[in-house]
Amino acid sequence: MEPLIRIRPPGERGREVLRRDAAVISPSVTREYPLVLEKAKGMNLWDVDGNRYLDFTAGIAVMNTGWNHPDVVAAIREQADRLSHGAFMDFCSEPPVQCAEELVGFLPAGLDRVYYANSGAESLEAAMKLARHHSGRNYFIAFHRGFHGRTYGALSLTAGKAIQRRGFGPFLPVVHVPYPDPYRPFGGDPATCGADVVAYIEDTVFRFEVAPDEVAAIVVEPVLGEGGYVVPPPDFLPRLRRLCDEHGILLVADEVQSGCFRTGRFLASTHTGVVPDIVCLGKAIGGGLPFGVTVASSEVMDWPPGSHASTFGGNNLACAASLAVMNLLREEGFGDRVTARGDYLVKRLRELAERHPVIGDVRGLGLMVGMELVRDRSTKEPAPDERGMVLRRAFERGLVLLPAGESVIRASPPLIIGEEDIDTGVGILDRALEDIRGG
What we know:
With 439 residues, the chain is an alpha/beta fold. The chain has two domains: 12-61 and 333-437, Aspartate Aminotransferase, domain 1; 70-329, 3-Layer(aba) Sandwich (Aspartate Aminotransferase, domain 2), CATH 3.40.640.10. It is 37% helix and 17% strand. The strands form three sheets. A seven-stranded mixed sheet has the order 4-10-9-8-7-5-6, with helices on both faces. Strands 11, 12, 13, 15 and 16 form a five-stranded antiparallel sheet that branches. A hairpin with a 4-residue loop joins strand 2 and strand 3. Helix 3 runs antiparallel to helix 10 (316-329). The relative contact order is 0.15. The model has no long low-confidence stretch (mean pLDDT 95).
């Protein structure tokens, strides 16, 4: 294959598709740069004009086993030839049952009841309804900069960007609190910011906003996703777990982006030994098809027949794809390889930081890595404009990346990435950073 070094605009076909896109697609949908995809394989994307790109996005952390993995494609084709829909809401079929049996095998003991939906947002909606039903309480606590989806319940939990909520209220009763960010620590001390946030919930929220016996659940991303790929201090989730246990509050882990070995373990929450009461999965678990899963214990998932369901939830195609994905994730040493590749990527990006002062912080867990750009390392002023220029220049040179938070570049490549791919991507990033330094 030709080297991934190019600076060229979209071709004629790409420009035509983009023109039609602008004319008929909702303006609420954003485009980071003019990429018009035609096909994908493994670590690579091709646009409609034949240009190849190295992918550091995995389709927003969806294609964890690589684009168009032959085992996943074959499973979808075979299932489509037999039974695609299945109407699992009314009729039983084997793939959804088998998928649930396989999934709980990846999870901590006790998380053994599965509800199927069509997306990560829907899995959060189910979790909210389940938490209210089981607890008999109405309120939720979630975190600033968190993102849980755009449906009404999930959006009520979300507090990442004002534009995502503007004009859509009123929302469900959710109290938002700071997320512990060691780079921008709540309370001022990176070492104690996790404890400081939990103390804020207990000493401030429970005193002045909502009594703990009115809170159904605390909903948390074990690693902050859209809000900036922030890895909280290791004591944060255990402290949150103890707080929930003390007050009879359910702990809901939104693992939609961080799950399926994205961080080196099937669930990011298990890095610190925490077992949530409810787990929400999506994105990678469906192998590229719309899929959402809510998992809880039999004790918590105690709602009666007919109380919640979905026409397409648990459809046979998505379950077949998910089974193929889980079979690949079960390969010996898979999580260890993700951890090793993530460590290597962080190392290479920190080498870039030594040469480019615009890089304020590099952090990550597994292959969920964030590089935060700042205008001044001492003030940590965010650099969103510079971030946009780097993303565009990297794209022009053949590397596809996405933003997160206010000025973070996220790296969430397919988990099959090798060191050579990492070196290629970091080399392109290096040149993109040089481009913006030179104006």
